[in-house]
Amino acid sequence: xxxxxxxxxxxxxxxxxxxxxxxxxxxxxxxxxxxxxxxxxxxxxxxxxxxxxxxxxxxxxxxxxxxxxxxxxxxxxxxxxxxxxxxxxxxxxxxxxxxxxxxxxxxxxxxxxxxxxxxxxxxxxxxxxxxxxxxxxxxxxxxxxxxxxxxxxxxxxxxxxxxxxxxxxxxxxxxxxxxxxxxxxxxxxxxxxxxxxxxxxxxxxxxxxxxxxxxxxxxxxxxxxxxxxxxxxxxxxxxxxxxxxxxxxxxxxxxxxxxxxxxxxxxxxxxxxxxxxxxxxxxxxxx
Length: 287
Ligand SMILES: N[C@@H](CCC(=O)N[C@@H](CSC=O)C(=O)NCC(=O)O)C(=O)O
What we know:
The protein is α/β, with parallel strands linked by helices. The chain has helices at residues 62-67, 71-77, 115-118, 123-138, 155-166, 187-197, 201-204, 209-212, 232-235, 241-251, 267-285; strands at residues 5-12, 15-24, 29-37, 48-54, 80-84, 143-153, 173-177, 223-228, 255-260.
């Protein structure tokens, strides 16, 4: 828990939206993360469930907390919500700021193996080990260690799926808005995986949700996938939810795909359906 420092604190829907910074040992830089503490933390004896929310390309921890309005639902259900940043910050790796879909703000929630990136670009270990442990320790008085869920958007939707599939049981519930579902088969994924993991495609499948689900052997899991039908990234075949659904069905993993007529890729769309995702997670985490 190195240098954990509160950066901001705002009351909202009876709870508190906070942002902290800390020194990350996995990423070797200072990182921000957000945490929403709903009103139920005050004076309550019961420990509360936690949902991690992973954001998409170009985001920081700020996008979700300022644009989605999730705090209303987290307060209703009594759920703590944690939001990491999307890549290491303030470390200069050559080429890390040349495009918006690779490098800074585009860590893809994996552990890079290519020399240039491998020291800092360890977002999988950061989220699923370091930050997870930090939350358990720093908020041990309010967090229920047995009830973690995860959700995300786009690159972060894929991060949520892969974090769940690679770490069976770590997250009891998972959902995603407009996730990149099959990165080994779309331009965003091919670019990121080539850069972070190298040319050997046999290594890529270890970080691809559509491939991982075919080998999933953990506790029973239902995947909730949401997709706007007018999302340009969906139309351009960056997201490929049908590939994930087909893979799930081939191995009998339950999956729900909600296609939303007229909706795009933005936070207008996410905020419209966020209540359904909170209900989905609450039902599992509070069962
Ligand atoms: N290049 C554009 C578009 C970037 C964009 O749409 N980013 C999405 C995530 S895309 C997949 O991971 C996003 O969440 N943007 C932040 C937001 O607040 O909408 C650009 O730079 O704007």
